[in-house]
Structures are given as structure tokens and as C-alpha cells.
Amino acid sequence: MEMGMNTHDLLLIKLETQEANNNYQILKSEFEKIAGVISVTASSNIPAVSGTGSINLGIGEREIVRYNYISIDTNFPETFGIGMVDGNSLTRNHGSGFLLNKSAVEELGLKNPIGESITLYSGENGNLTPSSTGVVVGVLNDFSYRPNYDSSKGAIFNVNPADFNAMFVQISPADQPKTILELEKTGKDLFDDMPLSIHYLNEEIENDFFIQKLYKIRNLILVTSIFSFLIALSGLLGISILTIRKRVKEIGIRKVNGASSEKVLVLVNGKLLKTVLVSVLISFPVSIGIGHIIKSNQTNGIALSFLDYSIVFITIVTIIAVTVSWQSWRAATRNPVEALRYE
């Protein structure tokens, strides 16, 4: 699928700690000395994987709006092969310069974006104060900075290293395993107590796309499961009613002979509830296994404990037991004389 950027031969290193963020420039400088490294850059999000931040901005005299915001290093567009529509890319000389993508120019209604004054605001709505001011120096082609290969939304870009969360290393196609080992060694030599996780950006994008598909499948399964559960519940209720009607005389005779309501209830529902329990015991480990597979492909997923699964299954069994026992309890507590008269 077209993403508007080149992600081949790009490695991803997540800057997951403040220490890693603080040492980005040192890492970049040392990595660029490695023979197989072509370029090193960074941004506040992982393109096509993670969402963006947002910021309050005002353009000229226009109304202040909340807008998608991404902090990038100056060479980010070149490293990702993102072309310029107009103007120039960011440089250190631009200071508080900004880039917009094509969608942002259209969404914000800018006819001549280059040179437009932009003010960023901090604080909450109603209590906003200007935090920085700059001008638009260039317009980027749209690219998939959002998950699901979505390149249809506008965004504003500037250089703010404090917001960098991910580093990207473009490497030569030749002898990539050796280059990766060199990167790992350099990182370890520089910061032994700060291990770096290095893997291909395309792998991260593919994993995220797979997870997004899983979520869609999960939602579909959730809806169908609810309907299936309600249909199954109706079926169990029907079976329970049919069973009771067939055994009205038997229930009456047992009650006359001194059987308690509880014993009659167990007699009527025992076989049905055993079947339900067997199905639950089969589905329990399957559900845990599927949950573990989904969690293993997420970086920030929440793992469900054994207790969480237990509560769900106990709730399901309770609902089923109450549903099928309702008619059975009515029959078990009914006057046996009426039951025998009915027969």
C-alpha cells in the first residue's frame, strides 16, 4: 500500500526513556561514523504506527485551533524520501520554522503558506498563552504519519528534540547484519546501562497493521459472539422448558415421595449444566492462548490475569445457570398435586 514515504533499509530505535532522549545527539553523531550508516534522524512518533500529539496553534489572525503536531529532526524528510511541494525543509538556521503537509494547507485554507506566521499556544482552552512563534518555511507531500496508512490528515512539523520518541537509522543494503551489530556495539560502548532495541521499521509497521486487523476481527467476533450467546441462551431456555414439560409427572411423583425442591432442581438441570461446564473448560485455555498471542504483538497492551478470565467465565456460567434454572425452579417448587392433575 502507498504510504508516501520510503521505509526500506530503515532501522527503528525507540527512545523510551528520558536518558535515551537526552543522548540522541550523541548517538546520532557516533552512528553516522559507522560505514554502513547513510542517515540518522528522529521524530516524536513512529510513522504509520503511532498516533501524533496535538497542539493549539494560530495562523495569522485566524482562530486558534487544535491540530496534529509532530516534532522531527531536520533531515527527517530526506531520510524518509518525502518530497517537498513548496519551500524548503527545516534547518538549524530556521530556528522556530514550521513545515505543513499538503492536507494541512488545504484544511487550514492557506493559499500562500510559505512565510505565514504561526504561533503555538500552551494551556487549556480559555487560558491559552503563546509559547513560541515562527513561520512556515515549506510544504511536504502527504505521507502516512498515522496508523492504518492514513495520509489524509493535516499536520504541522517543527524541530523540538525534547519531544523525540523514536530514532531512525538508514543503512546501506550491503551487509546489514554487520551494520546492525556495529550499531548495537556502539550503543553499548556509549551507554552500557541503556540497552537499545534495534529492529527494522517495516517489521514494526507490519506488526502494527496485523494488530489493527486483529482489532477489527476482534470487534466482529465480539458482536457475533454476543448474538451467538443470546441465541444459545434462548436455545438452552427452550431445551429446559421442553425437558420440564416431559418430566412434569416424574417431578410430581418425586415431590410426593418427599424429594426436596433442591434435589429436583439438580435432577432436572444436572445434565444440561454439566454440558455447559465442559464447554467452558474447553474454551477457557483457548481464550487465554488467544489473549496471550494478541498481547505478545503489542508494546503497550494490558495483560489479562487468570482472575480476569475466571470472572468472565464465572459470570457466563452464572447467567446460563440462572436462565435454565428459572423454569426448573418453578417446576420444582410447584404443588405436586397440580402437576399430577395436569398429567
From TrEMBL:
Main subcellular location: membrane
UniProt KW keywords: Cell membrane, Membrane, Transmembrane, Transmembrane helix
InterPro entries xrefs: ABC3_permease_C, Macrolide_Exporter_MacB
Record flagged with keyword Cell cycle: no
Topology term for the membrane: Multi-pass membrane protein
Annotated GO CC locations: plasma membrane
Compartmental location: Cell membrane
Molecular function, one GO term: transmembrane transporter activity
Stretches assigned to the ABC3 transporter permease C-terminal domain: 223-336
Segments crossing the lipid bilayer: 220-244, 272-294, 306-326
PANTHER family, alphabetized: ABC-TYPE MACROLIDE FAMILY EXPORT SYSTEM PERMEASE COMPONENT 2 (PTHR30572:SF18), MEMBRANE COMPONENT OF TRANSPORTER-RELATED (PTHR30572)
Name the UniProt record assigns to this protein: ABC3 transporter permease C-terminal domain-containing protein
